[in-house]
Amino acid sequence: MTSSKEEWAKKYSTLSVEHFDKGKTLGTGAFGRVRFVTHKDSGEFFALKTLKKAAIIKMKQVDHITSEKSILIALDHPFTVNMYGSFHDSRFIYMLLEYIVGGEFFTHLRKAGRFDNEQSCFYAAQIGAIFEYCHSKNIVYRDLKPENILINADGYVKLTDFGFAKVIEHRTYTLCGTPEYIAPEVLLNKGHGKPVDWWTLGILIYEMIVGYPPFVDEDPMGIYQKILSGKIVFPKLFDKNAKGLVKKLLTADLGKRYGNLKNGVDDIKQHKWFKDIDWNQLLAKEIAAPFKPTVKGLDDTTNFDDYPDSDELPPVVNAAQDPFTTW
To answer: Per the residue annotation, which of 143, 161, 197, 239 is the catalytic one?
Structure first.
């Protein structure tokens, strides 16, 4: 069992990559990879996010990465991944994250093809609870998709990858997100804020129940046209209450989108589709999960796909040009 964030910070205020035994790569991204690691002294397991400094600087993503770190420090929620510390060397910055043994939600969804109504409702409620919490801190997530959700051994989800998350008091104008999940106001560059997260929840609910998102095309421009046209086809298998909620979330008119009306998140939480969800029990993880991944132990990495390893070292960043010296 991993220590609490506070206990860990007290015990290990100074960390370096030498303190860990590296294991399997759990995922890769534009700036690096996430690896399973074991802390040599304590034997505790973590996920170590390793990002190349030179690539971040070249792509002008310093602010994004710094924002991700400060947001992860600020978060304390049962359904978001914990960060235990951060450190750096001349080539990389590192974020030490909670290891979630059940693997990617995406993998389980693809394996199942689609989830039944009850399972979809269970996961959607957790994402709704995360967004309610984040929005109370003016944090807008902006990048919901199955690949950014992990499943723990207990069958509950953990949201990860806060790289696009941003503290937004009113509005921002940056285009970001995955094509199938982008809200119309982002595409139209009208300025966007918290309502984009409720739009993405509508997309996720549809994808869980049907097996693919509502707006699909081989070409991103085709996807964008479909999003702006707003035509959604609901297969017969779609539960009528789920359909009712998805329609209220996938509304281009912000004056009508659930989550953005005068009752705020309560319009969503009190919707008929969630009638069997006790929100306090959910947060306390007292509701029996409809599915638990097969886990052989706390160090099991078999629920994650295999990625080729890379020994290629990125360039060293000169200390005088390093924006991460206080990392």
So the answer is: 143
Hey, which residues does 88 pair with through a beta bridge?
93
Partner residues linked to 159 by β-bridges: 80, 149
Could you confirm whether 143 is annotated as catalytic?
A: yes
CA-to-CA dists, residue 172 to 135, 142, 165, 176, 313, angstroms = 14, 11, 11, 11, 35
Distant-in-sequence contacts of 257-263, Cβ < 8 A, 24+ apart: 257/195, 257/198, 257/199, 258/198, 259/131, 259/194, 259/195, 259/197, 259/198, 259/201, 260/194, 260/195, 260/198
Residue 90's closest CA among 14, 12, 13, 16?
A: 16
- Pair 49, 140 in one domain: no
* Res. 107 pLDDT band, cuts 50 70 90: very high
Compute CA distances 101 → 105, 189, 263, 299, whole Å.
Answer: 11, 38, 37, 7
Please name which of 151, 263, 106 lies closest in space to residue 198, comparing C-alpha atoms: 263
Domain that holds residue 47: 5-101+298-314
Looking at residue 1, what is its pLDDT?
Answer: 64
Rounded Cα–Cα distance for residues 69 and 127 (Å) = 21
Q: Is 321 helix (H, G, I), strand (E, B) or coil?
A: helix
* Dist CA 247 CA 245 (whole Å): 5
Give the chain's domain count: 2
| Amino acid (one-letter) located at 215 | F
pLDDT (tens digit per residue) in 22-42: 999 999 988 999 999 999 999
Whether residue 140 is contained in a domain is answered as: yes
> Is 164 found in the same domain as 26?
no
- Single-letter residue type at 177: G
On whether both 215 and 260 belong to a single domain, the answer is: yes
Position 311 pLDDT exceeds 80: no
Q: Cβ–Cβ contacts within 10 Å for residue 295, how many?
A: 17
Type of residue found at 53: K
